């Protein structure tokens, strides 16, 4: 059986610039569709991925970070040329970064949305243990906005109920032990190959995700050689579905910088 990620593409036209978005943990391509529609309206065709092992898709046994990274490379090659932009959200930001570090010609730019990338092995060890205990093992099939480290959503009263239900459905249909296994591998990835990414990097963080993420993402600016950090007002860690027009503008400002149409 061939194990592959599943994708959907929201097109801005045949001649549009292209991007490939790697989802966050316990999320899937459909979670980002409204954002992709906003991006298409601004001239960026975006392919959205659902990763193997999540949302009922076949996965590896045991799950391996290296397998995810290689499958992301394959998907990005199929979705766009080396002039495209690689996007990654949360844990998907770590995978996208590793994919580009191992293949520097994969994309022209790297844009990370609230990435789950820790500057050091010690911080990664602590973050992985906290996430496993408080989210993977502590939340089950329930939704909790505060994870113990960050806030998923800024304004729950305005956040779409379908997006939370989709998240819960992905959790219910994800292969057991997948996320725990990935968390267990996190420390072993260090030292991370920051120097191998020569493309411009931008980190977009939710201004309301919490002080821990603010400090972590600010520290990444110094770890990456060519990174800039921007806070998007009114958003928390999930980024998408809360204010997609504002988020799309922030993405396009970086993704299409220097692109002539």
Give a verbal description of the structure.
The chain is of the alpha/beta class and 261 residues long. Helices cover 38% and strands 15% of the residues. It has helices spanning 33-40, 65-79, 91-102, 121-136, 161-173, 178-186, 211-223, 244-255; strands at 6-10, 17-22, 44-50, 85-89, 109-113, 201-206, 227-232. Strands 1-3-2-4-5-6-7 form a seven-stranded mixed β-sheet, with helices on both faces. The protein is globular, with a radius of gyration of 17 Å.
Topology:
Elements: E1 6-10, E2 17-22, H1 33-40, E3 44-50, H2 65-79, E4 85-89, H3 91-102, E5 109-113, H4 121-136, H5 161-173, H6 178-186, E6 201-206, H7 211-223, E7 227-232, H8 244-255
Parallel strand pairs: 2-3, 2-4, 4-5, 5-6, 6-7
Antiparallel strand pairs: 1-3
Helix pairs in contact: 1-8, 2-3, 4-6
């Amino acid at each position: 059986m061939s194990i592959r990620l599943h994708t959907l593409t929201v097109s801005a036209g045949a001649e549009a610039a292209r991007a490939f978005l790697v989802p966050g943990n316990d999320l899937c391509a459909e979670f980002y569709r409204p954002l992709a529609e906003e991006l298409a309206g601004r001239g960026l065709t975006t392919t959205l991925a659902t990763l193997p092992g999540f949302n009922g898709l076949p996965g590896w046994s045991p799950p391996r970070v290296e397998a995810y990274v290689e499958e992301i490379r394959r998907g990005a090659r199929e979705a766009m040329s080396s002039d495209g932009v690689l996007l990654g959200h949360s844990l998907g930001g770590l995978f996208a970064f590793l994919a580009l570090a191992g293949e520097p010609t994969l994309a022209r730019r790297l844009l990370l949305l609230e990435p789950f990338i820790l500057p050091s092995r010690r911080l990664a060890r602590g973050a992985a243990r906290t996430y496993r205990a408080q989210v993977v093992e502590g939340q089950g099939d329930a939704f909790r906005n505060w994870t113990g480290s960050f806030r998923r959503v800024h304004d729950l009263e305005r956040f779409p109920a379908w997006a939370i239900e989709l998240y819960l459905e992905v959790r219910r249909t994800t292969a057991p032990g997948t996320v725990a296994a990935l968390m267990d591998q996190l420390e072993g990835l260090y030292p991370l190959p920051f120097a191998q990414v020569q493309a411009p990097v931008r980190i977009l963080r939710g201004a309301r995700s919490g002080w821990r993420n603010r400090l972590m993402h600010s520290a990444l600016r110094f770890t990456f050689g060519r990174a800039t950090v921007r806070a998007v007002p009114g958003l928390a860690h999930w980024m998408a579905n809360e204010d997609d027009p504002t988020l799309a503008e922030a993405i396009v400002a970086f993704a299409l910088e220097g692109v002539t149409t």
